[in-house]
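Schema walk-through. Below, the input block comes first and the output block second. Nothing else is stored per chain. Lengths vary across the set, and this one has 69 residues.
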Amino acid sequence: MLMFYGTRLTDQYRRAGVYVDKILKGTKPGDLPVEQPTKFELVINLKTAKTLGLTIPQSLLLRADEVIQ
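--- output ---
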């Protein structure tokens, strides 16, 4: 994987737990709102970039949430 931009699975699991709690307390699933992720992360793998002969711009590296060496 060279780059990943998306939501953290742990955040999705946490939100799913909130939904399960509401359903177990009696809320009808159809009454629950559909939620969209609000937090995204950017992960860059420099080892893969080097293997592919790519140079990642410093400005992009500074914006990344995680850089894999």
